[in-house]
Records
---
Amino acid sequence: MSQDERPITPAEIRQRAYELWERNHRPDGFEIEFWLLAERELRAERGAQRRDQAMSQDLEVFEIG
């Protein structure tokens, strides 16, 4: 299973949420918001990776020679 096919783990979300929290000057009381934002960002990144792979595979079909 490639990296973009496996589920996003809570550890990955936790790490991204922590990074977002730090970048935003560590505000109190926004744990859920940062968790949800982190999850959304990771899902979007995985979706973009899947689209890029699909496009790459489609281009390979059309290569001549």
---
Amino acid sequence: MSIYETPTAQVEQNGQKFARKGNKILAVLIGFAVDFGLTIVGSTVATYLVAAMLLKQGVGADQLEQQIALYWPTVMGSPLGYGLMVFGTFTSFLGAYLAARFANDREYVIATVLALISIGFSLGMASPSEGAMHWALSGVGVAVIYLGAYTHVRAKRGGE
């Protein structure tokens, strides 16, 4: 060890390294805030892009909300919509990873709580006309949430 390095200590008991365990409720809140917060930001940016395009085409400001509602299904079938879906999936992964990293204990329990919250929002926001794509994306979202927790667990164990 160099004299210029900060002293460190190995904290172990029975060959097991100790790791800080965070507050699980706070971990869930962090995961929720990252996932849903960034998803809302992405949706807002996409909505502003659609609104700017509609205004450029001559749609009046008073009709803008109705036109966005009519045009939105077309947007979701476009590259912008697919990009928004990928971004939303990434935010689910990132939220679960950060929650698992903060909790640093019982990562899959944290992931299960986040997945249940996600499913609850999907059920609450779904309309009777929702197709298979909505439910497929919900399933992918749940899988990605568990992937975020798994990524942290694997990194914590040294990438076994």
---
Amino acid sequence: MIRLFQFPPAMGLPNASGFCLKLETWLRMAGLPYENVYTMNLGRAPKGKLPFIIDDGTTLADSSFIIDHLTKRHGVTLDDHLDRGERAQSLLLQRTLEEHAYWCVLYFRWADDRFWPATHEAFFAGMGAPYKWFVPKLARQGMVKQVKAAGIGRHSADEITALGMRDIDAIATVLGDKPFLFGEPSSVDASAYGMLANVVFVDLDLPFKTLIERDYPSLVRYCERMRDVYWRS
């Protein structure tokens, strides 16, 4: 059985990491049995990040590489209905979500003083002494450094909101009135759910959440649909 190493549930979600939630959602969509191994220890992670898996003795990191491996090894047909153009669009959507929108959300969670207390509570509330006295601060400093290195953290909060909402508008435009991004479920829906659920279903009034609820109800319904279909149990 596939062993999925990821962060424990947080913020009212199966996972508050967009990439962990993406991968577990994909496993459910693909119908592959797996076992969760919850951990906060990145020391075992091959690339120093979660998630990673062990599949029949093979250790793999990075959600996209993992999905590619599992698709080939287990004959997953989730994307077989996509034509070449749709596969190209899927890749572009994935890049938008995971390499831009992701950083916008990360900024507000870790760098914005308005939302840091909730992030601290979600990830470090159960941490004992002496670690609770310095680990949260070091973790926050590290995340803020990453956000700045990615470029997003160099902008103002209003500018980041504007940039992120362009991504949201693009995703909503592609979705249109379809139940899933390309009509039938495909792998990019797992990526979209991983990132969007971490805004829509988290009890934090991030600017993105307020604007999505007001201007993009189709995306809220989309997230609810993904949750209802793949996360009933």
